[in-house]
Amino acid sequence: MSIKEDQGRFKDIIKGKVKENFRKYVSQGEMIGKRENEIVKIPIPQIDIPNFRYGPKQEGGVGQGNGQPGEGVGEPGDGKGQAGENPGEHMLEAELTMDELADILGEKLQLPRIQPKGNKNIETLKTKYSGLAPVGPEGLRHFKSSYKKALKRYVTSGTYNPDDPVIVPIRRDFQYRTFKTISKPQTKAVVIYMMDVSGSMGDEQKEIVRLESFWINTWLKKHYKGLETRFIIHDAAAKEVDEETFFRTSESGGTLISSAYKLCQQIIETDYPVHEWNIYPFHFSDGDNWSGEDTRLCVRLMKEFFLPISNVFCYGQVESKYGSGQFLKDLQKEFQGDERIVLSQIESRDKILDSIRDFLSPGR
C-alpha cells in the first residue's frame, strides 16, 4: 500500500471521528479560531493506525514460556507508584478544508444541494493551464521552460561556452503548456447577517450566533465560490460593521428591529442587483422588539421587499432570560406556511445543529 493510500485512509479516520463528535464541534468555538485561509484545525484525541512491532529474536511470544494450563499469571497491582517523567498524551490537530467540513455537515444533517434561483446557475467553461508536457501543439510551446532544458543539456554535456552563450533548443528540449477545461459557475451570493446587540443579548447569545453563522457560511461557500458577507448590528438604531465588531459589540437600550431591515434593504438595492445575486438575509435576536407598530413595519418590509427577492429569509431567535420572545410568535402567526421564510428557535448551544438544519434543509 502506498504512502498516499495510507494518508487517505488516515484522513478518512479523522473525518469519521469529527462526524462522530460533530455536535460537540458545532457547539464549541475553539476550532473557529484556528482558521488559516480555507483550512480549519480541529483538536481531536491522538489516533494511531494499527501496526506490527517486532521484538528481538528468542524473546518468546504469545503462548510461549514456562507455565501450566490454568496457572495464574500474577496478582493485579494496586495502581500505586511514583509519578512518571514522560509527557502525557497530546491532542492531535487535524487539518480539514472548508469544503471537507461542508461535506461532513451535509452528510450529518442530510442537507440537499442548494439550487440557485433564476438563471444564475448557468456554468461557463474555462481553460486552466495546469503544467508542462514534452508534447503538444506549437502554439502552446513554453519558451522559457524549453530554453532552461536546453541550457541544462548544454551544461551537463560540457558544450556550453560562456564567451559564446548561444543556446539552440532541439526537439527533445521543447516543453508545452498543458491545460484542462473546468466549469465555472456564474452564480453569485451574498449573506447579510443582522443581529440585535441590545442589553438583553449577552455574550453567550452572541457566541451562539457566531458559531451558527460559521457553519452557515461553510455550507453556502460550498455552493457559491466567492461568497460575500455583510454584517449589521442594531439596538434602537442600525449600522454596518466588520465581522470582528459584529461579534464583540455590546450595546444597551431599546430594540427597533426595523432599523436593521431598512439598512439591509439599502445595502441590497445599492450593491446587489436582484437579477444577478442570490440573497440570504439572516437575522438573530431575542425577540424583544420595541413595539407592535415596529413589528408591523418589519412584516410589511418582508412582504413587500425581502421575501420576493431573497432565496430565503431566515430569522433565528436566541433564548434570553431578559427577552420576551414575542417577535418569533408574531412572525409565526403572520407567515405560517410561507416557504420563503424560515423561523428557528435556538434555546442553547446544544440546539445550534438543529437550527442549522432548519435554515439549510430547504435547499434554496
Strand order of the largest sheet: 8-7-6-9-10-11
| CATH homologous superfamily label of the largest domain | von Willebrand factor, type A domain
- Examine the coordinates and then state which fold CATH places here, giving the name of the CATH topology of the largest domain: Rossmann fold
SSE string, helices as H and strands as E: HHEEEHEHEEHEEHHEHEHEH
> What is the average of the pLDDT values?
81
Mass-distribution shape = extended
Number of domains: 3
Distance between the termini: 43 Å
Strand residue content: 15-25%
Largest sheet: 6 strands, mixed
Structural class: alpha/beta
Number of helices: 10
Structure notes:
With 364 residues, the protein is an alpha/beta fold. It has three domains: 1-49 and 91-110, no CATH class; 123-183, no CATH class; 186-360, Rossmann fold, CATH 3.40.50. It contains ten helices and eleven strands. The protein has helices spanning 3-20, 22-27, 98-109, 143-157, 203-223, 243-248, 257-271, 292-309, 326-334, 352-360; strands spanning 35-36, 39-45, 91-97, 123-133, 176-185, 189-196, 228-234, 238-241, 278-285, 313-318, 341-346. The strands form three sheets. It has a six-stranded mixed β-sheet, sandwiched between helices. It has a three-stranded antiparallel β-sheet with strand order 1-2-3. β6 (189-196), α5 (203-223) and β7 (228-234) form a beta-alpha-beta unit. α7 packs parallel to α8. The model has no long low-confidence stretch (mean pLDDT 81).
